[in-house]
Amino acid sequence: MASNRPAPEAPFVPNRYDSDTFGYENNRAEEGPWEEWNPTADSIRPVRGRHRVAKQRGGLARSSTVLGVGVIAAVGAGGMASAQTGKPPVSISMPDLPNVGSLISDEEPQPEGSTTPLSGIGVTATADTAEGTDTAGAGESLRARIMAQAEQQQAQVETKAAAEAAAAAEKKAAEAAAKAEKEAEAKAAAAKKKAEEEAAKKAEAERLAKLAKQFTLPTSSYTISSTFGQAGAYWSSGHHTGLDFAAPTGTLLKAVHSGTITSAGWDGSYGYKTVLTLDDGTEIWYAHQSSISVSVGQEVTTGDVIGRVGATGNVTGAHLHMEVHPGGGSGIDPMAWLQSKGLTP
């Protein structure tokens, strides 16, 4: 094991009365002259233990423990020598030593000039602190990113939901508007149709009113006893071919409209019959008359008397049997024809 180099000799021997050396203030009788003492390898045994002395060039001890023991031993030896020999104390010159803590290390000795620190405690702690700081910073950054992404996704969801709600509201509003427009159109069409119907009815009423002035019923003070198409054994065809106005014998018969008398006289089962041909070619037959007041070719107007009610021909009682033959053809319902002219039998 390497030993400490001998300390250099003191340049002078201090006076025993010198108080600057080891604090002696007075000369003591039992003290003898001091001798110079230097610690050697024999006088200083290395302290064995977990702390190893790092080997360095220049003979400097690597362990603070060894240095500390050496210093204590030197001081103690100096004191003992002073007590035993009475020699004046000798100052010991010690080289400048590095920080004791920097020499303590649990690791293996490092080569000279190595940049590896003797102790990794502070470095490890600093690295751990830096690593913890970096980890905390990274975690905070990751958390911030996650929160930002979550907020962005939430904003996108809310934006999408708002857009869908707006689209649904717009669609609903459009449907409601379309429905309202359709209903309005339907109401307008119904109102228009109703107005047109009312206008048509009004026009028809006006026309009938006008026609009513031109047409009239064939008789008055009557009762409808038989209608068109009524079945029965009284008629040779098996059904009634006209409209019967039952009235007392002698009741006046009138021209329903202006026209020309084209037939007047006896006609078998019809009894006395008169035929009035209107301007449009429609023939009006008056049958079962008791008397005829006009002749063939005579021009008549609405309301002119053409005969009287009777019971001639095939009858069961006095009445007017009236038939209507448009264009001189087959007969139609006289009731409907009179109604079409604004008359109500």
Automatic annotation (TrEMBL):
Tell me which InterPro entries the record gives: Cell_wall_metabolism_enzyme, Dup_hybrid_motif, M23ase_b-sheet_dom
**Keyword match Hydrolase:** yes
GO molecular function terms attached to this record = metalloendopeptidase activity
Residue span(s) of domain M23ase beta-sheet core: 239-333
Enzyme class, spelled out: hydrolase
Keyword terms of this UniProt record: Coiled coil, Hydrolase
Which residue windows are coiled coil? 163-214
Tell me the domain of life: Bacteria
Q: What is its EC number?
A: 3.4.-.-
- A Pfam family annotated for this chain is Peptidase_M23
Protein name as it appears in the record: Peptidase
Organism whose genome encodes this protein: Streptomyces parvulus
